[in-house]
Amino acid sequence: MLKAGEAVQKLKIVIPKGRIHEGVVRLLNDAGFGIETDDRVYRPRVGDLEVEVKIMKPQNIPQLVELGSHDVGFTGMDWIAESGADLAEIADLKLDPVSIVAAVPEALLHEDLHKRRIVVASEYQSLARAFLERERYDFVLLRTYGATEVFPPEDADMIVDNVSTGRTLAEHDLRIIATLMDSSTRFIANRKALLDPWKSEKIARLKMLLTAVIDARGRVMLEMNISGEKLEEIVKILPCMRSPTVAPLYGEQGYAVKIAVKREEVPALIPLLKKMGATDILEFELRKVLI
């Protein structure tokens, strides 16, 4: 409890604008932080009084966390690699996966681009330059600020950009010739913040809650009734996290069984359970899973 006049300690969090913003905010809110965002607000309200949030471009977040103006942040692994920032990765949240690729117009697909100087457009100046030098291209590198895919063929021979489904590249007649790296949203921290006992504990609790939400998204709870004579046979095939919860039904009418299973196992599991004699099968969404 705070003493009179004592300031509330704050964990400073920076969250990204743009493509990965929605996934990060939803994750934090599912973890219970109550962040209220608005397109015009860069300092959203937060339900947790010990947390202060600012919204910035994901490209800037690695260096801002490295410098210590924010204790922790969320950004893509692509921007961490691009910045070269010295920071601690707390968790791979596996949100919004993309690949960083090199792509060329279909018309240039079979041309040997090593035989002439080429123009390459990219937001990823460091990653693109490292790739082009490694592959021994003679190149001019243009910095882009979004919409990189529109540069070819008139303004660039090649692009280095992020891609999720590949649909945008296909719509612009671009073909991937190399994958530089795979990326997803990471939870990162300033190294000095991890040396502060209060901040370190707060970060550890935040990581626990976030991973609990992510684990819950991949699982569901199944509840069913099973007769006494079928209990052992059915329990043996249940793919639960540890062991199922089994409780006797009123009047010795069998057993109620609960299991948390991976979501992708459900389509095959429920028909099998029904076939083996399980009844009254219910499926529930989970909010958090702590293993």
* CATH topology name of the largest domain: D-Maltodextrin-Binding Protein, domain 2
Number of strands: 14
Radius of gyration: 25 Å
Domain tally? 3
Number of H- or I-type helical stretches? 8
Give me the CATH superfamily of the largest domain.
Periplasmic binding protein-like II
Question: Could you list some keywords that capture this structure?
Answer:
about 290 residues, D-Maltodextrin-Binding Protein, domain 2, 5-stranded mixed beta sheet, Alpha-Beta Plaits, single chain, alpha/beta
Walk me through the structure.
The chain has 291 residues and is an alpha/beta fold. The protein is flat, with a radius of gyration of 25 Å. It has a five-stranded mixed beta sheet, sandwiched between helices. The mean pLDDT is 92. It is built from eight helices and 14 strands. The protein has three domains: 117 residues, Periplasmic binding protein-like II (D-Maltodextrin-Binding Protein, domain 2, 3-Layer(aba) Sandwich); 86 residues, Periplasmic binding protein-like II (D-Maltodextrin-Binding Protein, domain 2), CATH 3.40.190.10; 67 residues, Alpha-Beta Plaits (2-Layer Sandwich), CATH 3.30.70.
